[in-house]
Amino acid sequence: MSNPASPPAVGVLDQGPELTFPPGFLWGAATAAYQIEGAAAEGGRTPSIWDTFSHTAGRTVAGHTGDVACDHYHRMPDDVRLMAELGLKSYRFSVSWPRVQPGGTGAANQEGLDFYRRLVDELLGHGIEPWLTLYHWDLPQPLEDAGGWPARDTAARFADYAQLVADALGDRVKYWTTLNEPWCSAFLGYGSGVHAPGRSDGGDAVRAGHHLMLGHGLAVQALRASRPQAQLGITLNLYPVTPASDAAGDVDAARRIDGLANRFFLDPVLGGAYPADLTADLRQVSDFGHVRDGDLTIISSPLDVVGINYYSRHVVAAPVPGAEPEAYWRSPSCWPGSEDVRFVTRGVPVTDMDWEIDAPGLVETLERVHRDYTDLPLYVTENGSAFVDAVVDGQVDDPDRLAYFDAHLRAAHAAISAGVPLKGYFAWSLMDNFEWAWGYTKRFGMVHVDYDSQVRIPKSSARWYAEVIRRNGLAAQ
Ligand code: FCB
């Protein structure tokens, strides 16, 4: 029941009995280094593939770059204070590889490490649990020049970098995510080329995916050896994939896309093998000759937690000869070997990314991972939505984003009630930021950022979320 002494900021919470989350549920918000930090050439930081990509004409909307972004590098203490005001229990951030190990090899850059030390200390000082992601897409440019993720050596370089960060921060950070969304790094970065480094070769994408997972496994082994108390995990972006009809061709299309989007990573990381149907689908693209004996044992090194980023569902149908494929991450070459599968839109409400809003898909995803793959604790490490916002009289009212969070938190609660060991939820994102190829044109934040003045304004969704955290729950509908 809502507490009349402190009414919720937004009326949505006012009806029905409370949906309470388990004690200790980890309520958080997430960001990533390149999306918020700015200070791209300060403190010894050198370029990553995202600096190069965003500075290349035609790669991002309006040529936007992360040079300044939210200027978080200079405003970090204020941003942590804002997190504390919202009552966040945890903050998921990423470390910029080229800030702490310029060039991607060799000695650590103390100035870079000091920034994260200060961030972590600031968080701990406010009682906020730091959740550190090692790789949120910013590969040091020299490692790309040496072959990037399609090259096996990059996996070893990543493990060295992980060790260096663990040496510096392992005494004060408990939760470690190796990779954020390796599907995007591999298939958007090296397949469709809509993300950095902007290469387009299906075989490279498949090799990149493997070496990302190898790097993950090597990093887990290194961290496990040196920081036995650490809680180690990976974050995968997962989608329910639904056939548009019961027709055999549609069902097969769904099997293919599920293989590429979900099982390409879930099966090796949590089961130690690539699915046979997936390698068969990819036969024209890759012979998997890059997979060496022992790789899958490394890749499936035991974890403590599994992170899931959930945004939407894919609905797919059998190819129709001559049909036009859709753009961006549905573009054909991010589905090597299955380029002609059609992505169907159902006419349900979408966000400003054109992603269909599908909260039940979160329940399906969580239940599937728990049922088919693991008993480990699960965390939603990202979930959120872009909508167009307006600042009116210094306020930002964002009912659509609030409703998206509300629906997905109800889904998260339903999954817990059904027995899924979901232990936490991170809203994407704490604040508006550089949305990759979309630059600053898509706003995912609970906090509005004016990119000229860098003024932050908590939107109504942020005030609502603060109330959810305070109550550890929300009202049933
Ligand atoms: C995820 C990314 C994150 C952000 C959201 C909208 O794929 O991990 O950085 O771009 O999408």
UniProtKB/TrEMBL annotation:
Keyword entries, A-Z: Carbohydrate metabolism, Cellulose degradation, Glycosidase, Hydrolase, Polysaccharide degradation
Q: Which NCBIfam families does the protein's record reference?
A: BGL
Q: Which Gene3D superfamilies match?
A: Glycosidases (3.20.20.80)
Q: Mind telling me which Pfam families this protein's record contains? A: Glyco_hydro_1 (PF00232)
Cite the EC number. Answer: 3.2.1.21
Q: Which organism is it from?
A: Micromonospora sicca
Give the catalytic activity.
Hydrolysis of terminal, non-reducing beta-D-glucosyl residues with release of beta-D-glucose
Where in the sequence is the active site? E181 (proton donor), E382 (nucleophile)
Print the organism lineage. Bacteria, Bacillati, Actinomycetota, Actinomycetes, Micromonosporales
What are the binding positions for substrate in this chain? Answer: Q35, H136, N180, Y311, W428, E435, W436
What PANTHER family does its record include? Answer: GLYCOSYL HYDROLASE, LP05116P
- Family from the record: Belongs to the glycosyl hydrolase 1 family.
| Record protein name field | Beta-glucosidase
Q: Does the keyword Repeat apply?
A: no
Tell me the InterPro entries matching this sequence: GH (IPR017853), GH_1_N_CS (IPR033132), Glyco_hydro_1 (IPR001360), Glyco_hydro_1_beta-glucosidase (IPR017736)
Q: Which domain of life is it from?
A: Bacteria
